[in-house]
Amino acid sequence: MSEIALSKSQKQVLRDAMLRAGRVIMQVRADGQGHDIKGDGSPVTLADTRAETILLATLNENVPHIPVVAEEAAEAGDTPDTVDTFFLVDPLDGTKEFIKGGTDFTVNIGLIHDGRPVFGMIYVPATGRYYEGMARAGAWSATIDCQQCEHFIVQKRYPIKSRRAKKDDLIAIASRSHRSDETNDWLDEHKVKTTISAGSSLKFCLLAEGKADVYPRHGPTMEWDTAAGHAILSAAGGRVETLDGKSFLYGKKDQKRPYLNPGFIAYGQN
Predict the structure, then answer these.
(1) Distance in angstroms (rounded) separating the CA atoms of residues 89 and 92
(2) Which of 198, 212, 224, 244 has a beta carbon 3.0–4.6 Å from 88's, enabling a disulfide?
(3) Residues 47, 92: contact at Cβ < 8 Å?
(4) pLDDT digits (tens, 9 = 90+) for 183-235
(5) pLDDT tens digits, one per residue of 14-29
(6) Chain-centre distance of CA 255, in angstroms?
(7) Nearest-CA neighbor of 149 among 121, 134, 122, 130?
(8) For the chain, which domains are there?
(9) pTM, whole model, 2 decimals?
(10) Nearest one of 105, 87, 3 to 44, comparing CA atoms
(11) How many helices (H) and strands (E) does the chain have?
């Protein structure tokens, strides 16, 4: 499905758009812009809105037949009709990290088909790390500086794969800004000895790279927070399940709060 939906040239256009979004995000931070608080209590900055404008324009121009659900537009009540296939866009995941001066914030595009993520792209503007994954085709990573490069030219691109867990020596990833008591209880119950703190969708990427084994999330997330990372992790050999072990699906537009996720556990390999 993902190969039919996105051609090689379309993917390249989207990679270039990720770099442009990254440049805008870093410029806003350099300018010292402030932030506002949305109705749900989460922060939003000029970087969020400017990056989303770039991504939406690129998707609408180059893949006009696929609807796009983007965070800031959706929060403002602007969501398209979606059926089987649609994009989920988070222009700046980890806004709290961005505001605090950290590096764990990301630009995200995920493609959903029949409720499942089949293609994902994540860029980390502060470090230049880029991740991409496609169902049945694997996942890969590269490093490219959005401040120096106008176009996405990858000199060293290498495949990534999640690792097989050692059940008596699990390494977990937990949220830096949204860690709950339920998550701490889960870590204790499963006798996790080592826990890495990370922000944003980067947690999925660390699992996909084989740097950790499990990521439990009991607090709320939205579909645009997880789609790209879920796609990359799945392409790298991992999986995501609900807390009761069911398939973690997308397109939940008709519930009380549209596109709100349940809790989940993301795994590398068993």
Answers:
(1) 9
(2) 224
(3) yes
(4) 888 888 888 889 998 989 999 999 999 999 999 999 899 999 999 999 999 99
(5) 999 999 999 999 999 9
(6) 22
(7) 130
(8) 2-160 (3.30.540.10), 171-267 (3.40.190.80)
(9) 0.94
(10) 105
(11) 8, 14
